[in-house]
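SEQUENCE-TO-STRUCTURE ENTRY
===========================
What this section holds: a protein sequence and its matching fold, both as plain text.
Question of interest: how does this chain fold, as expressed in backbone structure tokens?
***
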Amino acid sequence: MTERTPGKQIHLAAHFPGVNSTTVWTDPRSRSHIDFSSFQHLARTAERGLFDFFFLAEGLRLREHKGRIHDLDVVGRPEALTVLTALAAVTERLGLAGTVNATFNEPYELARRLASLDHLSAGRAAWNVVTTSDAFTGENFRRGGYLDLAERYTRAAEFLATARELWDSWTPDGRQRPFAHHGRHFAIEGEFTVPRSPQGHPVVIQAGDSPEGREFAASAADIIFTRHGTLEAGREFYADVKGRLAAYGRDPDDLLIMPGVSYVLGDTAAEAQEKAAEIRRKQVSPQNAILALEQVWGVDLSAYDPDGPLPDIDPDPGSELVQGRVKITDPFAVAAKWRALSEAKGLSIRQTVIETTARQSFIGTPDAVAAELAEFVARDAADGFILVPHLTPGGLDDFVDRVVPLLQERGVYRTEYRGATLRSHLGLREPAGKG
């Protein structure tokens, strides 16, 4: 295949599979989500594919369904920053991104841990800032309680600003100064114990599609981790978020938009579609289909047949059978949408859940998938993608072996790492620091 004219460059990251319906645990190729060898395999595969970073999600409490542990939850996964620190020793260039909650942590302690990871990895650390608003998760912490939606973003914004004050308390030339922060949520002062790290600040990622999440990302994040189902939906989101940056004195290139996506490859388009359909059937078992329905309806639907029609009853917005998840804000609208789809296509409960809960997938031959990824970036629907494979830990192997070379031939993906830090991979400026 002849090499093509270079286009807008694609950024890629790898999401370690786990607590979601994407993972197919019943596949015989699925391995441990606890053994370090699994994390190492996926991270080294991503580095072999010249990915920007490895991304590790994390929750602070196991979800419950009807008072029992949610059957999709991962029990026993090690803490994210501990895993990433270990991976720093077995990788050289790959960025290391961990999810850490801004609701149930404190700025000084977390800033130290992130700065330490940045030092130990020679400038490859990233922090995915998330928040929690439910009292269910709060029960695991001394402070307990919860914050409403607006307040948790207010706390997260002050948390991040405070962490950056701590990182900036060491100047680029190695001078340390006392810090003092007195705000609504935090009142701390003293001296920060970790010198300025190789990137100045670890890269900041924010996940969310809500108006509050978009505004928070535009004001403070380096990457926004999102999801959208079509090219046009992606372009609309991209234009909206990029359009918010100027209000904060930022340029469009200061924030990268990277949706989480899945992919399925086949030697022919028909084979890829057949494989994708089989994967979706495994991801949404009959039991999981009913569980997904109960998250919308808020009532016990265990008596319903997953292969039968949707319930003809209205949702109960006051009920919560599943704890530890983001609650659906308008279950009536979701139920109406699902009913309309089911009636229009003659879908059963399970078929409806399969169709409505699928993550954006790129399905086809390696060349077709490479072309579609490049089109999304060229048409400003994304700056890159966080790939969410359905297998642990080998789910990324075929993409690196079969799609990455085609992206390189198209001139839209790097053929080598040109810098050492995650910021250099992403094309982000290093924070100036304060003299």
